[in-house]
Amino acid sequence: MANVACDYRVLLLVAAVAFFYIQMRLFSTQSKYADRLAAAVQAEDLCTSQTRLLIDQISMQQERLLALEEQRKRREEECRQLRDLVEELETKGLQRLTDKVQVPVAAVVIMACSRADYLDRTIKSVLKYQSPVAMKYPVFVSQDGSHPDVKSKALSYDQLTYMQHLDYEPVQTETPGELTAYYKIARHYKWALDELFYKRNFSRVIILEDDMEIAPDFFDYFEAAAALLDKDKSIMAVSSWNDNGQKQFVHDPYALYRSDFFPGLGWMLARSIWDELSPKWPKAYPCWLKENHKGRQFIRPEVCRTYNFGEHGSSLGQFFKQYLEPIKMNDVQVDWKSMDLSYLMEDTFMKFFANILEKAKSIEGTDVVLKAYNIDGDVRIQYNDHFDFERIARQFGIFEEWKDGIPRTAYKGVVVFRFQTSRRVFLVGPDSFDQLGIEGA
């Protein structure tokens, strides 16, 4: 019996242990499910909160869409009213809006590199007279290189367009000792002119440098000359410059001449000429016209329409004090629109020029300056060759230099300038009379 009682106690103990174990497992499982349920409830609350936030955002977007739709309707109504207004104005015979679109006479490009102070002075001078005719003459600044002050100065003007030429190819001069600057200038000119003629499709371009000021009638002068340039294909370009335009050698602001010498320093070129020049543009500027004249000539004024103040630059100040600083820039407002420039047509001008040259009194000898001074009317002086021309030119103080066998400003070998008064002095080459068809002079 004692053994039986002992067995029951053991069974009860085992049962108690098993019951306790089962209870512990149940408690652990219930705890896990309770935690999961709490997490699920929390997640549901978060989801509900996010859903409400999303609903609020959608509501706001819908309100914005409604507001934009209302704004669109208002804009459409305004556009409709403007269209009605335009139609009403047109029916009343007022100028159509398309009539206000004006084809430019020429683009104006200021060639710059590293002189920000010079560039600023040039821009101010150009804009002073360009503003009333801005539609006819859009202004560009073309910078060669990346000088930051030049770029900043150009971009500070809203009235012009900035272009930048970056060329890192090393320069190889054709002869030792040449200035590499002229090679860089040539590359820059070709790039800028290609850009304006071919990419921006201008029919004419006026080229200025970053050390120039312009005269009050600069734009009127070029507009009148543009018609001449289009009509007479023997004109290669129109310049605003006269190399012998110093104060003591000019008198008449209305006088224009043809010249076999390229004056530069403010000049206008037509696209038809650039079509010919661009493919064979030389490596170094400014000798680009040497083989391209083909008998064509240039128009130049007696009194300059530009003034060059650039004492420091690529040419290292050559000629500045003697020839550039004393230049007289025109200060008379010439009414070019009323001027008849037909006398500058090739055949007409040759006869016109030959006539005034033939009437000039011939003088010779060693004291030609004194003789010219004592004669009231025009005079002409014969020179025999380059050396003889330099000798006479030096006595008067005009440019002695020749380029490509041509004296500066010469037409048919004749250089004309005023001498202290309205009298003209003609320095006449050995073949000039034959070229002009003058017999027995």
Automatic annotation (TrEMBL):
Its EC number(s): 2.4.1.101
Coiled coil residues, start to end: 58-92
Pfam families: GNT-I (PF03071)
Keyword Acetylation: no
First-listed, main subcellular location of the protein, grouped into a coarse class: Golgi
Subcellular location per the Swiss-Prot or TrEMBL entry: Golgi apparatus membrane
Example GO molecular function: manganese ion binding
Membrane topology: Single-pass type II membrane protein
Keywords linked to the UniProt accession: Coiled coil, Glycosyltransferase, Golgi apparatus, Manganese, Membrane, Metal-binding, Signal-anchor, Transferase, Transmembrane, Transmembrane helix
GO cellular component: Golgi membrane
Catalytic activity: N(4)-(alpha-D-Man-(1->3)-[alpha-D-Man-(1->3)-[alpha-D-Man-(1->6)]-alpha-D-Man-(1->6)]-beta-D-Man-(1->4)-beta-D-GlcNAc-(1->4)-beta-D-GlcNAc)-L-asparaginyl-[protein] (N-glucan mannose isomer 5A1,2) + UDP-N-acetyl-alpha-D-glucosamine = N(4)-{beta-D-GlcNAc-(1->2)-alpha-D-Man-(1->3)-[alpha-D-Man-(1->3)-[alpha-D-Man-(1->6)]-alpha-D-Man-(1->6)]-beta-D-Man-(1->4)-beta-D-GlcNAc-(1->4)-beta-D-GlcNAc}-L-asparaginyl-[protein] + UDP + H(+)
Gene3D superfamilies for the chain: N-Acetylglucosaminyltransferase I, Domain 2 (3.10.180.20), Spore Coat Polysaccharide Biosynthesis Protein SpsA, Chain A (3.90.550.10)
Cofactor note: The cofactor is mostly bound to the substrate.
Functional pathway: Protein modification; protein glycosylation
Presence of the UniProt keyword Nucleus in the record: no
InterPro entries (UniProt xref): Glyco_trans_13, Glycosyltransferase_13, Nucleotide-diphossugar_trans
Cofactor(s) demanded: Mn(2+)
Cited function: Initiates complex N-linked carbohydrate formation. Essential for the conversion of high-mannose to hybrid and complex N-glycans.
Family, per entry: Belongs to the glycosyltransferase 13 family.
Name used for this protein in its record: Alpha-1,3-mannosyl-glycoprotein 2-beta-N-acetylglucosaminyltransferase
Organism of origin: Carpinus fangiana
